[in-house]
Specification:
The structure is a single chain. α5 packs antiparallel against α6. 41% of the residues lie in helices and 21% in strands. It has a 9-stranded mixed sheet, sandwiched between helices. The protein has a 5-stranded parallel sheet with strand order 11-10-12-13-14, sandwiched between helices. The longest helix has 40 residues. It is elongated. The chain is of the alpha/beta class and 655 residues long. It is built from 21 helices and 24 strands. It starts with a strand and ends with a strand.
Length: 655
Amino acid sequence: MQYLTTDSVSLQKTRQIAKAAGLKLWPTTAQPKILNGKTDEIPVGVCVLAGEINNQKLTALLNLPIENILDANALEKSIVQFLKKEKSVKLNQTLGVLLTGPVIYQCDIAQIFTEALRQRLNFSMGRFAGIHMALHEALVNGLTHGNLGLSSELRQTARDFMKYTKLLSARLKDPTFARKSLSIVATWNEQKLEIKIRDEGAGYTVQTDMQQMPSVSAKSGRGLRLIAGTADSCTIDDFGREITLSFLLKETDHYKAAEQIAEEGVKNPTAPDLSKCRVLVVEDEKSNQTLLCRFLNIMGISDIEVAADGIEALYKVAANKPDLIILDLTMPRMNGYEVLHHLKSTEQTRDIPVLIQTASDTRETRDQTFKLGATDFLIKPLNPLEFFSRVKVHLENRLLIKHLKDQLAQIDVELASAQKMQEQLLPTDQMLEVIRQKYHLDIAHFFESSSRLGGDFWQLFPISEEEVGIYICDFSGHGVSAALNTFRLHAIITSMNRRITTPSAFLLELNRRLLLLLPRGQFATFFFGIWNVKKKILKYAAAGSPNPILKSGRKKTFLDTAGMPLGIASHPEYTDYQVPFKKGDSILLFSDALTESPNAEGERLGEDGFAKQVLKAFSAKTAKKAIDGIMARFFEFTKPPLPDDATAVFIRSEK
């Protein structure tokens, strides 16, 4: 380290620090040339004292041949101590920063610092992920537990977490805490990278008798376990105030395997993002725990839980359902076989993939684990490439299944909404009562689609004080496409209500408009009638619909519905018919599902069989009782579910 410079700090303060640290000033102005791009004028080893620091500035400065960056808001004593300590480090083998709490909190220091190291050392992306993970956790630990003096116990409940957030914000603004610095110093050679993270917190006092020193193998402290599982070695010194992380720079087999997995992910951008997965490692040996966690970190997986025995594993599965369980078989208290049995015999957990890893490579072991429901099997010592490949496959399958379930759930919501909308096309009970009071027609109906959505619908509407119109429609097919057609047709009919002259003219206009909308091969059968309650007649025209059954006294009549279905021909012919419809007369309109749905033996009722079976129900006192009787007799012959949408409308004249 040769010189000290500044970008926005007063020159007087810079001189004081330079003198205290025994460094020369370069340049001597308050605005150094490094900010205007003249990086060739910077001597190697310049130490930059920065006043205002953000992600962009940090990234730009660390891309220059600079050894250290310091935050001028830190305590002057801390800055001088840092400079004196780092003065003797060899050039091109070190990189350090000294930053205060607000900067650490607001900037992505771990990402920027690790990227600066990768630019200098050219290590792999697999190694990058591990260093970034460990550094991030160490910074969080040093900032919150060290400098800001905040305990994890303050975040146990939602209410506590709100208090924790307010306290965190307050301490970041309080100079007593905010001016405390946190240093990151990386040194390296050809074989190893070492990073020291040091805070200025209170640390652990001697009175604790060293028993509460933070431990990377402790059962609590998720961050420390992640650090230990990612770094090649991790030591904690000075009563918790300093963490030293070591990383081997030589590419080993498992890093090469990770690189291969990563490259495959780049080639396949549609592959699921494994970093979103949660993995539970069930293993009693701490060295194996560390190895498995480290392998998972290399793959970009950071949400990892560790259980040392089967009982702890089941508690953790119940509390936080993982996407994959890596399970050892030989463990205290409850072994892997028992864990597997519990998982696969419980509905809430039986779908979780379980990857067995064991040293027992016998046919009996494999047979027993697969019989209990294991997803896959690995032999210790683990082959890294095999481990990466199998974990990748099972997690990708898990994510794809989750994605599919989410899509199906969304489709289900959308179908339910569409189904509700389609039901709103039908007359309401209130509307039927209004029609009954005004036109003296007692009306009841039955509607059921063969799937969530259907192609049947019917409606009635007032035309004048004396006339009311009714129609029943059945689009070819069923499901979403048929349902969409019902919405189209409903919109068309709504716009035509005021321009009805005769039933046949109404059908001709419908046909003309549907020809412009319906895809080839789709069509609709249709019956349209107009009741004149004063003249007591029914005028109607039909387009290939099933023949309605008219009952007048003891006489039963099938109405003529000959006519080309809508949406097939450009110039069809439709005929107007007229029949009496006096007090006590009844008519049943229905879709072809009621005549063509087969029973268990494959037999169909047909129009005559259907009429014979349901005609007795016509004598019921109300339309509601009549339609209930008709459908009860029909379902005695044909059991649900029906192969097609079913609609039935019963109407009786009361006056």
